[in-house]
Design goal:
By secondary structure, this protein is mainly α. 49% of the residues lie in helices and 0% in strands.
Length: 209
Amino acid sequence: IEKGEFFAFLGVTMGNLSYTPTDSLGYTPLLRACSHGNSRMALALLATGRSGPGIVGDNGFTALQFACGNYLSEVALALIKTGKSKPGQVDCNGVTALLYSCSKPELKEVAFALLATGKSKPWQANTDGRTPLITACEHGFSDLALKLIETEESNPGQVDHRGNTALFYALENNMQETAYKLIETGKSNWKQSKKQMCFQLLELNTSSR
């Protein structure tokens, strides 16, 4: 068992949990539990009501970001419910909890919960130029992509490090409704894509209607 987890366990069982960071990265026991993917420990710490869910580590990570990055959907939802989890926090890689949660089907419920907070920064791109919308479209999550577009803050014209937009990925995955909604925004940057494949895919999908 990790030292941080051991002291967290003592804090939970003895009722004297400290907010004081336990390591050089400024991680609290809750941060450490989430970073290690230990959902049982994280939930036990949250149950105390004194685990500091909004504390940010030195590298910009919160417990919520770690929970999403490690696919701990139950923990992520519990953190959001506290109202103190800082859903808009951006880590050292430019990633938010929302961006993490747009990459796996088991985290879609978390993504919708994050959007409902109104604080999840759906426009935020990471250091590779990827936004939650680009990620959702690349993974073929039509329902999530449509919800992101609905916010009117999803930055639909963003271009990622491959030179592709959300529209390109939507067309590549035959997400026609999403593609049309993106075009309707007037901000989809629809001609910008690697080797102009986006334009070709648009013609293909239009001709098949």
